[in-house]
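Practice problem: predict the structure.
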Amino acid sequence: MNKQWSLSITLTVVVWALLFMAPLALDEWTVSQFGQYLTYGILAMSLSFIWGQVGILCFGQAIFFGLGAYLMALTTLEKFTWFGGSQVMGLLLATAGPAIAAYILGKLLFVGRGLSGAFFAIVTLCAAVVVEIIAQRIDFIGGFDGLLGVPPLFAGWRGGDMMTTNEMFYVVLLSALAIYLLALFVQRSPLGAVLAGIRNNEVRTTSFGYRTTDYKVMAFTFSGAMAGYAGALFTAQFGFVSPAIIGTALSTEVLIWVAVGGRAVLLAAFLGVILVRWVESVLSSTLGPYWLLTLGGLFILTVIAMPDGIFGRLFKLPLPRAWRRFSSAQTGAEDAARPSANAPAVANSEIRKANA
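Answer:
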């Protein structure tokens, strides 16, 4: 293992350790803010998975985030009376509902000739606009005002009392770590190898006998489930949900987070949320109404100067050992098959000897 890989592994462990120690050094309000950033971080990882691993740029990731938030709110507010306001059921519905929606949307967009690249991005952007408008006109989910008074998560281990700020922070952080490890496991599994093949050359992957459409739908479904669970945690922390979190504004913002952090690395995208949010707070307090313009300029500069993102290279983990062995064997075979630079001279010398 080279030094770069060793550094990446060390930095990854250090980041998660620092996050777990954050409540020990920060005040309650800052811890609450960081808890919200972690929720957005899960959303960023969901986009990083589908964009960085499979090469599918989705401009409608907030659709699944907002759907999960609404399902959590409707369940805990007992709009779905048959669930009795169960928060556990709310979390399950908030995960399963967006996954089903992503599966259906994936089937519609990938099957047949399918959409990819800019066409897929444009269609998902239009879908986000349509869903936001529809959400504003449905009275059952609060219409334009959304749903207020969503109950926070309760601590079952303390007799059902409301979670403290630190407890909520650790619930979100443990959820983020679990989702990170699960997504990382998928990326480094044989399934992840197929998804990477689709990203690099879908036609060639298809020629090997893989049904790439099914794999893309599967990855899109998993990404939707991640985003939906993040939406449920968002609702539990903020206590409300509105059409604004299901439309184009959040979909565009999460794209900025992931691009700045590093779309190809899950933890880099996760940290991109914290960095951009912190920069937003600093710029808004110092530059007034011009902060958004400045942030846009910084985003453009970052994308041009650092295509891998600010954290992409730092937190890029080594490939699985089996992949490295295969890569080395393939390189060796290619070197053996490639003619050397003096091969023509050697061949001519042998021909002259034979003629003599």
